[in-house]
Structures are given as C-alpha cells and as structure tokens.
Amino acid sequence: MSIAVHASQITKGFGKGAARTMALKGASLDAPLGELQLIVGPSGCGKTTLLSIVAGTLIPDEGTVEVLGEILTTLSQSKVTAFRRRNIGFIFQQFNLIPTLNLIENTSVPLLLNGISRHRAERAAEAMLDQVGLSGRGRHYPRQLSGGQQQRVAIARALVHNPRLVICDEPTSALDRETGHQVMNLLKDVARAPDRSVIVVTHDPRVYDFADRIAEMEDGRVLSNQPASHGQPPAVTG
Predict the structure, then answer these.
(1) Which of 22, 44, 85, 186 is the most buried (most CB within 10 A)?
(2) DSSP code of 184?
(3) Which CATH superfamily is domain 3-95+163-227 in?
C-alpha cells in the first residue's frame, strides 16, 4: 500500500500563556493513495486543523508531515507554497467561487497560478467542466447556478491541474442528500486513480458509505484509522 500522507505526532496550539488552547495533541494519520479517506469526530476535535497542516497551510508546533514523498515540515514556506500549487487541490463547504468570473475563468485559476498561458488554461478548464457534468455552462456565472452545480465547479477547479492529493473540508454539508451523493460519487471516482488520494473532513453521516477508510478523532488525537465498514457508522460521530 502506497502512502500519500504520513503525519506523525502532530501538535498545534493557538493563543499564548493561560489562554493557549491545544487543537492537536500528538495526532498521527496515514492516508493511502487510491483511496477516499474520511476524517470524522465531534466539533472542535481538531479535524480542520489537522487537514490544514496536511495541506501545508498551517505549520505544526511539533511532529512531521510527509506528503507525496516531500517532508513539508523541513521545507521553507515558499517551497511549501510551490509544492501545494502543483500537487494539492482544495474543495470547501462554501465553494469560494469568484462571483465576477465565469465558470471557465474560476476553474482556470490554479493553472494560471502555475504559469500556464490563459488560452491553455481556459481550454483545460472547459474540458474539466465537461467532466463534472457542466458541459456548455462555462460562460455562466456562479450566481446562475444551484448550490450543487457550484460545488461541481469547485471540484473542477480543484482537479484542473491534476493534483495527486485532493483536500475537502465539509464538501456536502450545505447540500441536500441527492446533490451531496452526486458530489461524493465524483470524489469517489477521483480517488480510484492509483496515484491520487482524496481526504474529506466531514460531520455528514450520509457520506460514510463512500469512504474507503475512516479516521476517528477526539480531543486533538486520531483514535483510529481503519478501512470503512460500509453500513456501520464510526464510533465517534459528533
């Protein structure tokens, strides 16, 4: 089994002195390639903090993070940023689409950040929108779409630069059941690639059946990280 993410004994605190709060207390996580991994647990248990450290957008106080063979905790911030732009795609609960850009322009942003010409970037963006079921909608604007369609644009944007790690923070919690299942089916298809991994932080028990593996967190620690038993909820659901 090849590992996309190996995070070991991660600690992270916020604040100073008596007001300091520890979000992570020695959390460890392995996420294999070719799988869709859920991270679940009660609110405030450190799920999003751990996800942010894996993505390189937060620096841990202690511990090591290896992503796709790179030890992020030994790299300068500029090298982490460059690594993230090339290798990681992000999908958020709130979509984070730019309202003044059409769908092709929104989707092409990661390619433009990686130095691809606008013409090539927009051609690739249009092709990716086709793949997520939005063929012919590229000149529309986010305000013209449903919530589920906007999340599809967010998925297209996350995948357009062919990242090997896709990071998702509550991607279905703002969606109805049917639309959420459509989004998770897309992510499940993405995770089937043997050189790619998808990690989803969620409170949404409706998506557990899509997981290959479920990591359960509580109080800043990963309590277990096991292959999913479909039809059976994890012990920590929050």
Answers:
(1) 186
(2) H
(3) P-loop containing nucleotide triphosphate hydrolases (3.40.50.300)
